[in-house]
Amino acid sequence: MGSPAAAPLISLAAVLLPFLSLQHAVAASSAGLPNCPTSCGDVSSVPYPFGIGAGCYHSPGFNLTCDTTRHPPRLLLGDEAVFHVLNISLANATVRAARIGGINITSLDSVGAGRTAWRGLGGDGGPYALSDVSNELLIVRGCDVVAQLTAGESGSGNVTISGCASFCPSMGSSHELMTISDGQCTGVGCCQMPISFGRSSYDVLYRRMDVSRTSEHDPIGPPHVFIAEQGWQWWLINLVNLDETPVPVLLDWAIGSAPLGQDGTPLDNSTCSGNAAPSRSVCKSRHSSCRDVATAVRSGYVCDCQQGYAGNPYLADGCQGWWVNSVL
Fold first, then answer.
1. Burial class of residue 202 (count of CB atoms within 10 Å of its CB; 0-12, 13-18, 19+)
2. Cα–Cα distance between 73 and 78 in angstroms, integer?
């Protein structure tokens, strides 16, 4: 006869086995469309509405390319293929992606001022915009320089979105001139400032506060300007190779993403309740719901699994119930 102590273990196993099977089912339901690849290189999950190859994604912008000429292969975002994907989240409607190097500052005028741009999401950004909660403007190795972000979309004018200044109070080695405290720039040799206004593109204004100091005379070399995800530990990277370094950003995405109308209201086809919104054809799981998402300049919508369910709301039967929680 079995030990009495074994009975609770057997009962627990009886409960956990369905739970583990459910976990496997949810993981499977979070994948892509049938006969479509769902991994590339270090990215182990490519869930629909994203997809690799024709017929595997929802709409333009969600198309991904697996670049097998690299080792390991890289998952490239959209037609522009400027960013490579690090992670996709359906629950948060975000993509962590990276692009090589910073913002190229080359055409400075006689007083050390210049203007350039941050682009790469394609056209008006398609389904993507920079997340307004997890990114920042960053100057690295900068002596007495200012960088300023302005709206980069048509009709937005020169609205200032973010900016920071980096100073070098004295001459010395690069380690003496760049000070970092608890992972944050102090403004000496580098600076950083949150970007709280998400867009698909930005104009970047740059100027030197001391026009007599050129890049050739900077004691810590030419400055580098980045838009990067907050928490990026750039100081652990060999500063000589910053132009060849992948710089991570966090992007928001939405179905039907479009600029707001001239009166500032969302277009019908970019909301869940709009007359032309095909939300039910997008949120395919019967346990899913549609949620509007909007910024100051764009609107769109995403699908969520209803409370008590998890998985992929964009697939039929993609949201699976977590009934085991009530059993335990």
1. buried
2. 16
From CA 90, how far away is CA 253, in angstroms rounded?
10
Beta partners for residue 309, in sequence order: 321
Those residues whose C-beta lies under 8 Å from the C-beta of residue 93, and which sit 6 or more positions away, are 252, 253, 254, 293, 302
- The residue among 43, 34, 35 whose CA lies nearest residue 67 is 43
Instruction: Report d(CA 213, CA 210) in Å as an integer.
Output: 6
Rounded (10°) CA dihedral 78, 84, 89, 93: -50
Can you name the residues that pair with 203 across neighbouring β-strands?
117, 150
Nearest by Cα to 166 from 103, 245, 226, 223: 223
Q: Could you tell me if 306 and 287 are in contact, meaning their C-beta atoms sit under 8 angstroms apart?
A: yes
The runs of H, that is alpha helices, within the chain are: 6-29, 174-177, 279-282, 324-327
Distance between CA 291 and CA 203 in Å, rounded? Answer: 31
Whether the upstream peptide bond of residue 8 has omega within 30° of 0, thus cis, is no
Cβ(64)–Cβ(223) below 8 Å: no
Give Cα 193 to chain centroid, integer Å: 17
Contact at 8 Å (CB) between 98 and 249? yes
**Per-residue model confidence as pLDDT tens digits over 193-251:** 999 888 888 989 888 887 666 555 555 566 788 999 999 988 877 777 777 889 999 99
Beta bridge partners of 115: 205
**How does pLDDT run across 150-176, given as a tens digit for each residue?**
886 555 557 889 999 988 876 554 445
